Amino acid sequence: MNSAGVIWITGASSGIGAALAREMAAHGWQIAASGRNRERLDALCADAPEAIHAFELDVTDTKANERVVAEIQQQLGPIDIAVFNAGVGSQFNATHFDAADVQDRMTVNYGGAVNGIGAVLPAMLEHGKGQIAMTASVAGFRGLPGGAPYSASKAAMIALAEGLKLDLEGQGIDVSVITPGFVRTPMTDKNRFPMPFMIDVEDAARRIRRGLAGKRFEITFPRRLSYTVKLLQRLPYALYFPIIRRIARL
Ligand SMILES: NC(=O)c1ccc[n+]([C@@H]2O[C@H](COP(=O)([O-])OP(=O)(O)OC[C@H]3O[C@@H](n4cnc5c(N)ncnc54)[C@H](OP(=O)(O)O)[C@@H]3O)[C@@H](O)[C@H]2O)c1
User: Fold this and answer.
1) Which tens digits make up the pLDDT trace of 185-204?
2) What is the per-residue pLDDT across 146-177, written as a single tens digit (0 to 9) for each?
3) Of all atoms in ligand 1, which is nearest to the CA of residue 198?
4) What residues are in contact with ligand 1 under a 6 Å CB criterion?
């Protein structure tokens, strides 16, 4: 089968990234799969050895991002789509505010995407085409109790995507922001609070693939949750704070 193109996915060693790699492989893509955990990357590659290729990477390392992009281009050819999906998130206790831990969410989630874009964009601009997507979250729509650092990192990614879309649309570069609600992955397996409208990771991967194929700016799902949070986003503080306090107590 002729390749549909080359897609680079960070955070591909687990959860949404791994499912997206399998989904894209099933649709004829060559996948450059990045993550730090070599064993999990190798296990993913074994699922589709002709299509999925491991490129070990810590996204917080700027130079390593540049090195990996050069290796992907050399081994697989120009990168058509880059999905910056690597992320960390866990419950946050504001009364035990640990600055290093709070910074870490920003360094990996937002900083990792920034490093990846910096590495891949020059070649895309040179070719006059390319697609960049970032996995943010519905948690980036508003500050949430128990998740301020995570929300802040995802809000930064959404704002980055909006601005880049406007700046790059005349250059042949499409930008997307992916804002999932709850998806069953090792990240959410740790959560001990209710996660309404949770979906399976394969379902999430299918929705992301379709959104990327349609070059949609916003890929958001499940809509029952994301549109509800979007409604909350539009409320003035006088209404938002009491409503979100009540929801958090449920
Ligand atoms: N699950 C959800 O409900 C949900 C909802 C909204 C948004 N998201 C977002 O979706 C993305 C994927 O999450 P997930 O649920 O699939 O979580 P996951 O299963 O925990 O996967 C996280 C991925 O990020 C990678 N990663 C973490 N730190 C990294 C680093 N410094 N360098 C390179 N890779 C790193 C991990 O790989 P290594 O450990 O191998 O490095 C792993 O592949 C995240 O950005 C998350 O915030 C998830």
Assistant:
1) 999 998 888 888 999 999 99
2) 999 999 999 999 999 999 999 999 999 999 99
3) 3
4) 10-17, 35-37, 40, 57-60, 85-89, 108-109, 135, 137, 180, 182-183, 185-188
Do 211 and 176 touch, CB atoms closer than 8 A?
Answer: yes
Instruction: Give the domain extent around 107.
Output: 5-249
Number of domains in the chain: 1
Q: What share of the chain is helix, strand, coil (3-state, %, to 5)?
A: 55, 15, 30
The one-letter amino acid code at 249 reads: R
The domain that contains 112 carries what CATH number? Answer: 3.40.50.720
Catalytic residue numbers read 150
Which atom in ligand 1 lies closest to the alpha carbon of residue 154? 47
Which residue's alpha carbon is nearest to atom 23 within ligand 1?
A: 11
First to last CA, the chain: 51
Peptide bond into 196 cis (omega under 30): no
